[in-house]
Amino acid sequence: MTRQVPLLTADLPGTSGLTRVAEEDFRVEELPLYEPSGAGEHLYLTVEKTGRTTQEVVKEIAQALGARERDAGTAGLKDKRGVTVQRISVATKVPSEEALKLEGRGFRVLAAARHGNKLRPGHLRGNRFRIVVRGVAADGLPRAQAVCARLREGGAANLFGPQRFGKYGDNADLGRAILARERVVRDRFLRRMALSALQSEVFNRCLSARIEDRLFATAIEGDVLKKRETGGLFVCADPAVDTPRVASGELDPAGPLPGHSVFAAQAEALRREQRVLDEAGLDPASFAAGGREMEGARRPYRIPVGELQVESAGADALVLSFALPKGSYALAVLREVLKSGGEPDFH
Asked: Would residue 11 show up in a list of annotated catalytic residues for this protein?
């Protein structure tokens, strides 16, 4: 599904090339939503890890600090392949200066401070990336510069990457079977993952249709619009009034992660979304079968690309640096610049 989302810069040539040739070629740093207060029962650790999953490192750190794994929290999961920096909270009485000495296979603690609450998913502003692309075309730098100029001006498509759909790309199909009551999945993690993949597939389909119809950065009647500054949602009653606000970056049209309690679109926007659901073989009446995992939400079709820079890293390599809001994929930028896969699972 991800590969079918049209490019925003299809008229500009790509650099080609490969990412993650080495783990240090892919670096991502979490941008915190807030700073620790310095007091509280939770220890906030800034952790650098390489070649390890977030879950693996959380488990080891919790054990080392004498805490239960369920008493540890994170704002999000980070890639295994690469060098990543993120915060992990642990409810522990171990002094911060002792926690600073913690290190293990593939991870080390960079900073430690106390705070009053556990980190929860979503407690971050976004992520900052530094990605080396190797084996680029001879004129790769000017090609990348042209694409980056376009993305700085108009933003990137907020698509879901292929890892969202599972190793074999069949997570969404399992989600369909759950809603149709053709499959009973008792594993809560697997059930949640399958239904989330189905929602992501629908969103990518809606996003694709907006780009194909040249409505990516345009408000249409009945659109659900999201205020970029506050996250507030409202329905577009007058496209002539709201489209300039979309063009300025104040607002973004927000597509559906479908569910039984999703903020509803109206008029033309609702008809477009219903057409996508019909094409995907989904009946909104079935969403109730998803329970709490299928409440639904709104996700902006467009994301700003902050701090976007590109520079040469030798004869056939480039370095891309940029920041994205939480929940967005580096793929949104990489696919526009490279115009190729980059790696079998690049995201």
From this structure: no
